[in-house]
Amino acid sequence: MGVFRTLAVIGLVSAAIGAGVLYSGLIEVGADVPHAAPVHALLETARERSIAVRTRDIRVPGLADEALVRNGAGNYDAMCVGCHLAPGLAETELSKGLYPAPPNLSKVGSGGEPARAFWVIKHGIKASGMPAWGRSMDDPYIWELVAFVERLPSLDAEGYRMLVESSPGHRHGGGENMGPAQGESAPAPGTAETPASKVHIHADGKRHVH
């Protein structure tokens, strides 16, 4: 009984200290100050284990199809480039200000883990700035993004631009208001159809219509 009593006291004291630290405001939550090493290690481990458990049963489709890559390029340029950059784009206002810093996908791609990339794009990461795009994108469009991210590290700035300009633009059936005009049917994800007029919003905020 003495051991259990001692453990109970230690637990209560630890909880009281933890509560005191939280209430004191000593923990820095500003995005311009990195986490303390123990907090960073705890959060990194929790994130990686959570994703690993939830991606075990994801079946990765074939991602080498050029139509998938091309379609993913337009959505990447509209939705991802501001944080995750592109060939020839070193940083943006968003990428400089976010913490944790978003990975430069033009360098690392999916890291050889397309199932992980799919899960993160779909579900997002709490308190990281990574949105849950699955709330507005169906799975086929997310796989198109993954296909493009897989290809991205092999592209130079010109190759990136050409893929974006040949894509259907920012289109994923989620209310982005850049789809075909009323009465015109949208191509299914993975098809090569390209509308006559496309709009891209680039990292500098400029709209490119062609």
A few lines on this structure:
This protein is mostly helical.
* Large-scale geometry: elongated
Quaternary structure of the protein:
single chain
Low-confidence stretches: 178-210
Sheet having the most strands:
2 strands, antiparallel
Q: What is the number of helical segments per DSSP (H or I, 4+ residues)?
A: 9
Instruction: Tell me the span between the first and last alpha carbons.
Output: 78 Å
Rg from Cα? 22 Å
In the sheet with the most strands, the strands line up as: 1-2
**What's the helical proportion of residues?**
40-55%
Give the helices and strands as they follow along the chain.
HHHHHHHHHEE
Relevant terms:
210 residues; mainly alpha; two-stranded antiparallel sheet; elongated; disordered C terminus
What does this structure look like?
The structure is a single chain. Residues 178-210 have low confidence and may be disordered. It is built from nine helices and two strands. Helix 3 (66-79) packs across helix 8, helix 3 crosses helix 9 and helix 7 crosses helix 8 (139-151). Helices cover 48% and strands 3% of the residues. It has helices at residues 2-24, 37-54, 66-79, 81-84, 93-97, 105-108, 114-123, 139-151, 157-166, and strands spanning 199-201, 207-209. It has 210 residues and is mainly α. It is elongated.
